[in-house]
Amino acid sequence: MTRDADCLFCKIAGGQIPADVVRETEHTLAFRDISPQAPTHVLVVPREHHRDVASLAAAAPDTLAELVRTAAAVAAGEGIEAYRLVFNTGEQAGQSVFHVHAHVLGGRAMTWPPG
């Protein structure tokens, strides 16, 4: 499994940094965001390091599919039927940790367009 020793999310996935884990599978980990933007705000990451969602799709499409399934399971576990699944790709899009992660946002009405 490929991990980046300097990556925050690799350290969380490896158990070196604690997190409020909501769900985990062999290839994914879901944990609460430390700065929630909605009543439910959970991050879902692959355990293996990939910079962004496009990189993950190219290198490990089955893991990307598992990541989306994990996100759906998180939403169901949180009791929310309607949720937003967000992947930020690149600094200008708001990506601040360069380890692909999906934001599961829900528990309130979402506006459009997003900010």
Automatic annotation (TrEMBL):
* Alphabetical list of PROSITE patterns matching this protein: HIT_2
The protein's matches in Pfam families, at most eight in alphabetical order, are given as: HIT
**What GO molecular function annotations does the UniProt record carry, in alphabetical order?**
catalytic activity
Q: Which residues form the HIT domain?
A: 8-115
Q: Which domain of life is it from?
A: Bacteria
In this protein, the active site sits at: 101
Placement of sequence motif Histidine triad motif = 99-103
Alphabetical list of InterPro entries matching this protein: Histidine_triad_HIT, HIT-like, HIT-like_sf
| PANTHER family attached to this UniProt entry | HISTIDINE TRIAD HIT PROTEIN
Q: Under which name does UniProt file this protein?
A: Histidine triad (HIT) family protein
Organism for this UniProt entry: Jiangella alkaliphila
